[in-house]
Amino acid sequence: MEIVVFGAGSLGSLVGGLLAREHAVTLVGRDPHAETVRETGLELVGECEATVEPDATTDARNVQADLAIVTVKAADTAAAAETLATGSYDAVLSLQNGVGNEETLASALECPVLAGTASYGAVLEAPGRVRCTGVGEIVLGARTGGPSDRADRIAAQFAAAGLETTVDDDMPRRLWEKLAVNAGINPVTALADVDNGAVLESPVDDLARGAARETARVARACDVGLSNREALAALASVASETAANTSSMRQDVLAERRTEIDAINGYVVDRAAERGLEVPTNRLLTSLVRTWERGRGLR
Ligand code: KPL
Fold first, then answer.
1. What does this chain do (predicted)?
2. How far, in Å, is the centroid of ligand 1 from the Cα of 186?
């Protein structure tokens, strides 16, 4: 299978690198990472060890492949969609944080767009080297829910490369559940500069749980069946499974990059406002992270 990964940061490089054990993979990323991968290959270290030789480029216009996997930051989805539209793919799979990326991609593309989540822990340690800090799984399916033969076929190809992959018939709910987890873990770990597991401990556990609970409430207002109990259980299980990991938002803050706050807690605040709901914890976390970004000239 020919696969192009748009957004070869930490997670994109890890997923692309794992798939390159079986498939022809091209990573689209930034130099010097892309250049190093092209010249000397990609080294996966930590919990998934491999040295692979995917192709790598900084320019992905006019590409043809069986599958494009999108792992860019949520704020860059529209730009990625524009580039993808110059090429040709049998299908596009979003493995991004946030809800609604698939719709942005689908509105610019003619091919089917699938939704997905990836729970691997990854850190881009140096150009050409990614540390796998947690073996997780890929969950994918039709973006509007329901069975999908295409999702089944892609899952089988991922499994052939050794990636634990599940097909979910209710991806809208799965994405909101992931949003609840991200809303609890990402800003709290970024602001307090702690590993994911710390959100299970007092006093920040209240903040993380509050953000996840509010997200579930907004999901229900958007006709997605996610109970508070399910959102809290997902938060607790991801936080304990990834206890020693650095969340993507904390990685962004440590690298002084703009975060995905708008697509995570900011998204919850916006959807809540449209429905006349109060989400004070998400509002507070959004304000704090946006204030940090403004102070660094990142927004
Ligand atoms: O998706 C994540 C992220 O860091 O963005 C979690 C689930 C919090 C795992 O680190």
1. Catalyzes the NAD(P)H-dependent reduction of ketopantoate into pantoic acid. Catalyzes the NADPH-dependent reduction of ketopantoate into pantoic acid.
2. 7
CA of 138 to the centre of ligand 1 (A): 13
Domains of the chain: 2-167 (3.40.50.720), 171-294 (1.10.1040.10)
Distance of CA 54 to the CA centre of its chain: 21
Place of tokens 């054990």: 21
CB neighbourhood size of 80 (10 A) = 25
Residues in the chain: 299
Q: Is 178 a catalytic residue?
A: yes
The DSSP call for residue 193 is T
> Ligand 1 pocket: which residues have CB below 6 Å?
97, 181-182, 185-186, 196, 238, 242, 245, 247-248
Task: Pick the atom of ligand 1 nearest to 246's CA.
Answer: 10
Which tens digit of pLDDT belongs to each residue from 128-187? 999 999 999 999 999 999 999 999 999 999 999 999 999 999 999 999 999 999 999 999
Task: Residue 284: count other Cβ atoms within 10 Å of its Cβ.
Answer: 16
The tokens of 150 are what? 């295409």
Distance CA 40, CA 187 (A): 36
**Distance of alpha carbon 63 from alpha carbon 91, whole angstroms:** 13
* Residue type (1 letter), 55: D
As given in the structure block, the two tokens for residue 56 are 């790598």
**Of 178, 217, 271, 283, which one is the catalytic site residue?**
178
Please write the tens of the pLDDT for every residue from 90-138.
Answer: 999 999 999 999 999 999 999 999 999 999 999 999 999 999 999 999 9
